[in-house]
Amino acid sequence: MTRPTLQDHLEGWSQADALRRDVADAVLALAGAGLKISELLAAGPLAGPLATVRGYHADGDSQKELDLIADDLVRESLAGTPVALYGSEEADAAVLLDAAGTLAVAVDPLDGSSNIDSNATVGTIFSILPYAGADSLLQPGRAQLAAGFLLYGPQTALVLTVGVGTQIYILDRASGAFLLAEERALVLPETAEYAINASNLRHWDIAIRCYVEDCLAGVDGPREKDFNTRWVASMVADVFRILVRGGVYLYPGDARRGYGQGRLRLVYEANPVAFLMEQAQGSATDGRLPILDLIPLSLHQRVPLVFGSRAEVERIARYHRDAAAMPERSPLFARRGLLRA
Ligand SMILES: O=P(O)(O)OC[C@H]1O[C@](O)(COP(=O)(O)O)[C@@H](O)[C@@H]1O
Ligand SMILES: [Mg+2]
Ligand SMILES: [Mg+2]
Prior knowledge:
alpha+beta; 30% helix; Fructose-1,6-Bisphosphatase, Chain A, domain 1; five-stranded mixed beta sheet; globular; 2 domains; D-Maltodextrin-Binding Protein, domain 2; binds magnesium ion; binds 1,6-di-O-phosphono-beta-D-fructofuranose
């Protein structure tokens, strides 16, 4: 079976449309950077001290050696493409690459960087917007022209949307090309799997506690079915799993200092993932509004994030909107509660 390459697929989509061709150029450049990052990760310690902490963001998050190398590789790959503005999770401000360019690109060069030295899956997330001046990266997620991520696992994958479904490509190492593996990824609407860092349980608000409590109660609780937990601590790996077999991912705001709006960044992480989810018939919310409708106020703004199978995302949003929707409030379930504060 001959599979289309990423390049074939993008050429078929862009045809003679100038802006689409620019998007295709940017995506191919990002794929090229991804190939280099995947080679570094495959070599691990043989490629140097990739997990060594080299600095800190203003909000206290550490920057590892590979965070910085990946940022350089991505920025270099975009030079010479039609990208005007490059914003990176690793830099305070966006940089102008080419004032004549048509695109603005926001990148999380390495997502899941706490996993670098554990030989677990990490990735590179990107969001492509039309360039409209210095504040281009503050457009709402609905304005995205394309979004996706590279995943560095047993397979190196590229998950992409240009607004026509969500595609999955796998790197063919022999040719160096990304080959189409799934033309229309679809997130199952229902699931019995959820992903959350449960060590933060005591800091969650009542809606999140109630949701997780319902799942943990399994067949004996109000959901009347058993759930399974999955948490990779690499959002990209959780996104990929949800695309192939459903599930829901939660990184809510919590009561820890600096975590009122959760951990994930709207521009670099939540918007591209929300676009991929919606294009795969999943959904993404901050607990109240669809992520793609939010208007970013600053480049590094964090946002509570819940995405995945539609029925679960909708349930969690309902718990936030309407306390009465939480089964925990029912006197019957209250007697069985596992996690009561
Ligand atoms: O360590 P925690 O709090 O469980 O957070 C893990 C989450 O943080 C992230 O690693 C954030 O991304 P970065 O590695 O780019 O900072 C997500 O990929 C992951 O789901
Ligand atoms: Mg990240
Ligand atoms: Mg990162």
